Amino acid sequence: MTNLSSTTGRDANAAGSGGLRNNAVFKDLFVNPWTYVTGAVILALLNIALIASTGKGWGVTTAFAYWAGWIWNGVGGDAHNWAYFTEVAKAFNGEGFNFLTDPASIMNLGIIAGAFLSVLLASQARFKGLKSGKQAVAAILGGLLMGFGARLAFGCNIGALFTALPSLSGQGWVFIVFIFLGAAVGSRLLVKYFI
Predict the structure, then answer these.
(1) What pTM does this model have?
(2) Residue boundaries of the structural domains of the chain
Protein backbone atom coordinates (compact mmCIF):
# COMPACT_ATOMS: atom_id res chain seq x y z
CA MET A 1 0.00 0.00 0.00
CA THR A 2 2.85 2.38 0.79
CA ASN A 3 4.44 1.85 -2.62
CA LEU A 4 1.13 2.43 -4.34
CA SER A 5 0.49 5.74 -2.54
CA SER A 6 4.03 7.01 -3.14
CA THR A 7 3.76 6.12 -6.83
CA THR A 8 0.39 7.85 -7.02
CA GLY A 9 1.91 10.92 -5.32
CA ARG A 10 4.76 11.04 -7.84
CA ASP A 11 2.31 10.73 -10.71
CA ALA A 12 0.19 13.55 -9.28
CA ASN A 13 3.27 15.78 -8.89
CA ALA A 14 4.38 15.01 -12.44
CA ALA A 15 0.90 15.73 -13.76
CA GLY A 16 0.73 18.95 -11.73
CA SER A 17 4.06 20.28 -12.96
CA GLY A 18 3.29 19.17 -16.51
CA GLY A 19 -0.06 20.90 -16.20
CA LEU A 20 1.59 24.19 -15.33
CA ARG A 21 4.10 23.88 -18.15
CA ASN A 22 1.24 23.14 -20.56
CA ASN A 23 -0.82 26.09 -19.32
CA ALA A 24 -1.24 28.61 -22.16
CA VAL A 25 -0.78 31.69 -19.94
CA PHE A 26 2.38 30.23 -18.34
CA LYS A 27 3.79 29.43 -21.80
CA ASP A 28 2.98 32.91 -23.11
CA LEU A 29 4.59 34.64 -20.13
CA PHE A 30 7.61 32.43 -19.39
CA VAL A 31 8.38 30.02 -22.23
CA ASN A 32 7.52 31.55 -25.59
CA PRO A 33 9.37 34.69 -26.70
CA TRP A 34 7.45 37.94 -26.43
CA THR A 35 6.82 40.06 -29.52
CA TYR A 36 9.08 43.05 -30.07
CA VAL A 37 6.13 45.39 -29.45
CA THR A 38 5.33 43.70 -26.11
CA GLY A 39 8.98 43.89 -25.04
CA ALA A 40 9.26 47.53 -26.13
CA VAL A 41 6.13 48.58 -24.25
CA ILE A 42 7.18 46.77 -21.07
CA LEU A 43 10.70 48.26 -21.23
CA ALA A 44 9.26 51.74 -21.80
CA LEU A 45 6.88 51.41 -18.84
CA LEU A 46 9.66 50.11 -16.60
CA ASN A 47 11.93 52.98 -17.68
CA ILE A 48 9.20 55.52 -16.88
CA ALA A 49 8.71 53.92 -13.45
CA LEU A 50 12.47 53.97 -12.87
CA ILE A 51 12.82 57.66 -13.75
CA ALA A 52 9.78 58.51 -11.61
CA SER A 53 11.14 56.61 -8.59
CA THR A 54 14.88 57.38 -8.76
CA GLY A 55 15.13 60.50 -10.90
CA LYS A 56 17.62 58.72 -13.18
CA GLY A 57 17.43 56.78 -16.41
CA TRP A 58 18.40 53.14 -16.68
CA GLY A 59 22.13 52.40 -16.59
CA VAL A 60 24.11 49.25 -15.99
CA THR A 61 27.86 49.70 -16.35
CA THR A 62 28.42 52.60 -13.95
CA ALA A 63 27.34 50.28 -11.14
CA PHE A 64 29.96 47.76 -12.27
CA ALA A 65 32.59 50.49 -11.99
CA TYR A 66 31.34 51.11 -8.44
CA TRP A 67 31.59 47.37 -7.73
CA ALA A 68 35.22 47.37 -8.89
CA GLY A 69 35.93 50.36 -6.65
CA TRP A 70 34.28 48.74 -3.63
CA ILE A 71 36.20 45.50 -4.24
CA TRP A 72 39.46 47.46 -4.54
CA ASN A 73 38.69 49.26 -1.30
CA GLY A 74 37.83 45.92 0.31
CA VAL A 75 41.25 44.44 -0.45
CA GLY A 76 43.06 47.45 0.99
CA GLY A 77 43.21 49.83 -1.97
CA ASP A 78 41.74 53.32 -2.18
CA ALA A 79 39.46 53.91 -5.15
CA HIS A 80 38.11 57.20 -3.77
CA ASN A 81 40.89 59.14 -5.51
CA TRP A 82 40.48 57.52 -8.93
CA ALA A 83 39.86 60.22 -11.53
CA TYR A 84 36.64 58.56 -12.64
CA PHE A 85 35.18 58.79 -9.14
CA THR A 86 36.40 62.34 -8.46
CA GLU A 87 35.41 63.85 -11.82
CA VAL A 88 32.63 61.77 -13.40
CA ALA A 89 30.88 59.43 -10.96
CA LYS A 90 31.13 61.65 -7.89
CA ALA A 91 28.36 59.75 -6.08
CA PHE A 92 30.94 57.07 -5.24
CA ASN A 93 32.52 59.46 -2.74
CA GLY A 94 29.19 60.58 -1.28
CA GLU A 95 28.33 60.20 2.38
CA GLY A 96 26.81 56.77 3.07
CA PHE A 97 26.96 55.65 -0.56
CA ASN A 98 27.37 51.88 -0.76
CA PHE A 99 26.12 48.81 -2.55
CA LEU A 100 22.76 48.83 -0.79
CA THR A 101 22.11 52.54 -1.37
CA ASP A 102 22.96 52.45 -5.09
CA PRO A 103 19.77 51.85 -7.11
CA ALA A 104 21.77 50.69 -10.16
CA SER A 105 23.54 47.99 -8.16
CA ILE A 106 20.22 46.68 -6.86
CA MET A 107 18.82 46.75 -10.42
CA ASN A 108 21.84 44.84 -11.72
CA LEU A 109 21.24 42.15 -9.10
CA GLY A 110 17.62 42.05 -10.22
CA ILE A 111 18.66 41.69 -13.87
CA ILE A 112 20.99 38.79 -13.02
CA ALA A 113 18.39 37.05 -10.82
CA GLY A 114 15.60 37.71 -13.34
CA ALA A 115 17.63 36.32 -16.25
CA PHE A 116 18.46 33.21 -14.22
CA LEU A 117 14.83 32.76 -13.15
CA SER A 118 13.55 33.22 -16.71
CA VAL A 119 15.78 30.49 -18.16
CA LEU A 120 14.79 28.18 -15.31
CA LEU A 121 11.07 28.81 -15.86
CA ALA A 122 11.46 28.27 -19.60
CA SER A 123 13.53 25.09 -18.98
CA GLN A 124 16.39 26.59 -21.00
CA ALA A 125 19.15 26.54 -18.35
CA ARG A 126 22.25 24.78 -19.67
CA PHE A 127 25.92 24.89 -18.84
CA LYS A 128 28.13 24.76 -21.90
CA GLY A 129 31.86 24.22 -21.80
CA LEU A 130 34.28 26.32 -23.80
CA LYS A 131 35.19 24.83 -27.17
CA SER A 132 38.77 26.04 -27.11
CA GLY A 133 41.27 28.36 -25.48
CA LYS A 134 40.65 30.80 -28.35
CA GLN A 135 37.03 31.06 -27.31
CA ALA A 136 38.07 31.89 -23.74
CA VAL A 137 40.51 34.55 -24.97
CA ALA A 138 37.81 36.05 -27.22
CA ALA A 139 35.31 36.17 -24.35
CA ILE A 140 37.76 37.78 -21.92
CA LEU A 141 39.09 40.25 -24.49
CA GLY A 142 35.57 41.13 -25.63
CA GLY A 143 34.39 41.70 -22.07
CA LEU A 144 37.36 43.93 -21.25
CA LEU A 145 36.94 45.97 -24.44
CA MET A 146 33.21 46.36 -23.85
CA GLY A 147 33.79 47.51 -20.27
CA PHE A 148 36.52 49.95 -21.35
CA GLY A 149 34.34 51.26 -24.17
CA ALA A 150 31.39 51.72 -21.83
CA ARG A 151 33.50 53.94 -19.57
CA LEU A 152 34.87 55.95 -22.54
CA ALA A 153 31.34 56.46 -23.89
CA PHE A 154 29.93 57.22 -20.41
CA GLY A 155 27.51 54.36 -20.77
CA CYS A 156 26.76 51.09 -22.47
CA ASN A 157 23.99 50.41 -24.96
CA ILE A 158 21.52 50.79 -22.09
CA GLY A 159 22.54 54.15 -20.64
CA ALA A 160 24.03 55.72 -23.77
CA LEU A 161 21.40 54.40 -26.19
CA PHE A 162 18.20 53.07 -24.58
CA THR A 163 17.98 55.90 -22.05
CA ALA A 164 19.45 58.57 -24.34
CA LEU A 165 17.19 58.12 -27.40
CA PRO A 166 13.83 58.67 -25.66
CA SER A 167 15.37 61.73 -23.98
CA LEU A 168 16.17 63.08 -27.47
CA SER A 169 19.85 63.24 -26.57
CA GLY A 170 22.22 63.69 -29.52
CA GLN A 171 24.64 61.32 -27.82
CA GLY A 172 22.23 58.42 -28.39
CA TRP A 173 22.17 58.96 -32.16
CA VAL A 174 25.95 59.19 -32.36
CA PHE A 175 26.21 56.08 -30.19
CA ILE A 176 23.90 54.05 -32.45
CA VAL A 177 26.00 54.82 -35.54
CA PHE A 178 29.23 53.80 -33.86
CA ILE A 179 27.78 50.73 -32.18
CA PHE A 180 26.87 49.39 -35.63
CA LEU A 181 30.32 50.24 -36.99
CA GLY A 182 31.99 48.61 -33.98
CA ALA A 183 29.81 45.50 -34.29
CA ALA A 184 30.71 45.17 -38.00
CA VAL A 185 34.45 45.41 -37.29
CA GLY A 186 34.25 43.23 -34.17
CA SER A 187 32.30 40.45 -35.88
CA ARG A 188 34.80 40.32 -38.75
CA LEU A 189 37.70 40.07 -36.28
CA LEU A 190 35.83 37.42 -34.31
CA VAL A 191 35.24 35.28 -37.40
CA LYS A 192 38.78 35.77 -38.73
CA TYR A 193 40.75 35.15 -35.55
CA PHE A 194 38.59 33.35 -33.00
CA ILE A 195 36.01 31.11 -34.71
Answers:
(1) 0.71
(2) 24-126, 131-195
